[in-house]
Specification:
Strand content: 15-25%
CATH architecture of the largest domain: 2-Layer Sandwich
Bound molecules: 5'-O-[(R)-(carboxyoxy)(hydroxy)phosphoryl]adenosine, zinc ion
CATH superfamily of the largest domain: ATPase, nucleotide binding domain
Shape: globular
Distance between the termini: 42 Å
Structural class: alpha/beta
Largest sheet: 5 strands, mixed
Helix content: 40-55%
Radius of gyration: 21 Å
Order of helices and strands: EEEHHEHEHEEEHHHHEHEHH
Number of domains: 2
Length: about 375
């Protein structure tokens, strides 16, 4: 639905419930396109899921219902605003766990209806993708590496609503691979920080594969890496503390190597697609962007390929509602709003025209 561009300062309430964070935030977008976070409330459900070693969808949905209202009220209080200040409500409508999405979308629609303001159904991936506009005032286009527990994608962000997916994962997401590695080594959940901590004490001495390394299309495949890790762990059982540290260091190094190689290839395609004069900036988002080794390797990859590197602050790299409010404000400013029939969608690709990643096995 298009209403025509809106040329005034916009204050948007954002709601995020697609996975295991219940979040509400308020962001203002000024007419010059600059964004300001007025409130950013995140209630994590980590402790509810930890004993299961992963997110349990039914538990997540129920927990969103229980805490979302309070999170929204707190966001208004933190921003020192009342309802009359809210110009629109934006809620993550997908992709993600459908139960949680329905909670957020229904709440958002109810507020929009009651207040008589527009509702915006936000794509969670778009919210991650547009974050550097909020945090760094970054203009388009740029290359985005999104690495979280649910997503592993390389995208050209051309403009709001205009994305070219260059690469995706054929199987596990990168964060998921870290979580599975941690689980099989008996470390805690979420696995990424646990693996990184162990890796710091070890040396990357265990030979592990670099799946998809050197392939022409910048796709990922991470399931094989996890299986190779399992074999190496079994061969060393019972595992000493030192062996666990070395396995973690080796896994992290392999993951960083693969991400660097795939990102380098995406940089080449970006320059071919956008032209040599296009802005050369790599943005990294998603929870795995917290990994210090990955950050160091990507900083070098960016430098070697004459790209600037932007890492949004960690609390805006991981799931949050400020990015949802900002994506909503960016859409509203361009007259892009939704009606109250907009559905929650478990699957919602940012680039519906991207060719399927299967058959990506052609060597460069
Ligand atoms: O973006 P995020 O908070 O949630 C979504 O998945 O949407 O990402 C969480 C993922 C988990 O898989 C977690 O293990 C991973 O990010 N992660 C890390 C690190 N911190 C979080 N992976 C590697 N190293 C880390 N330091
Ligand atoms: Zn996310």
């Amino acid at each position: 639905m298009t209403t025509g561009p809106v040329n005034r300062s916009l204050t948007v309430l954002g709601i995020e419930t697609s996975c295991d964070e219940t979040a509400a935030a308020i962001v203002r977008r000024d007419t010059d396109g600059k964004g300001t976070i007025l409130a950013n409330v995140v209630r994590t459900q980590l402790n509810l899921h930890a004993s299961y070693g992963g997110v349990v969808p039914e538990i997540a949905a129920r927990a969103h219902v229980e805490v979302l209202d309070a999170a929204i009220i707190k966001a208004l209080a933190d921003a020192r605003l009342d309802w009359t200040a809210i110009d629109a409500v934006a809620a993550t409508a997908g992709p993600g766990l459908i139960g949680g999405l329905i909670v957020g979308v229904t709440t958002g629609k109810a507020i929009a209806l009651a207040r008589g303001v527009p509702f915006i159904a936000v794509n969670h991936l778009e919210a991650h993708a547009l974050t550097p506009g909020l945090t760094h005032g970054l203009g388009f286009p740029y290359l985005l590496l999104l690495v979280s527990g649910g997503h592993t994608q390389l995208l050209i962000v051309k403009d709001v609503g205009s994305y070219v997916r260059l690469g995706t994962t054929l199987d596990d997401a990168l964060g998921e691979a870290f979580d599975k590695a941690a689980k099989l080594l008996g470390l805690g959940y979420p696995g990424g920080p646990a693996v990184e901590k162990e890796a710091a004490r070890g040396t990357p001495s265990v030979p592990l594969p670099r799946p998809m390394h050197g392939r022409r299309e910048p796709h990922f495949s991470l399931a094989g890496l996890k299986t190779a890790l399992r074999h190496e762990a079994m061969a060393r059982a019972p595992l000493s503390e030192e062996a666990v540290a070395d396995l973690c260091a080796s896994f992290q190094e392999a993951a960083a190597d693969v991400v660097s190689d795939r990102t380098k290839r995406a940089m080449e395609i970006y320059v071919e697609t956008m032209g040599a004069d296009a802005q050369r900036t790599l943005v990294v988002a998603g929870g795995v962007a917290a990994n210090q080794r990955l950050r160091a390797v990507l900083a070098k990859t960016a430098e070697d390929n004459s790209f600037a590197l932007i890492l949004p602050p960690l609390d805006l790299c991981t799931d949050n509602a400020a990015m949802v409010a900002w994506a909503g404000a960016e859409r509203l400013a361009r007259g892009l709003v939704d009606d109250l029939a907009a559905p929650a969608r478990a699957r919602w690709p940012l680039d519906p025209d991207a060719p399927p990643a299967l058959g990506a096995g052609v060597k460069a």
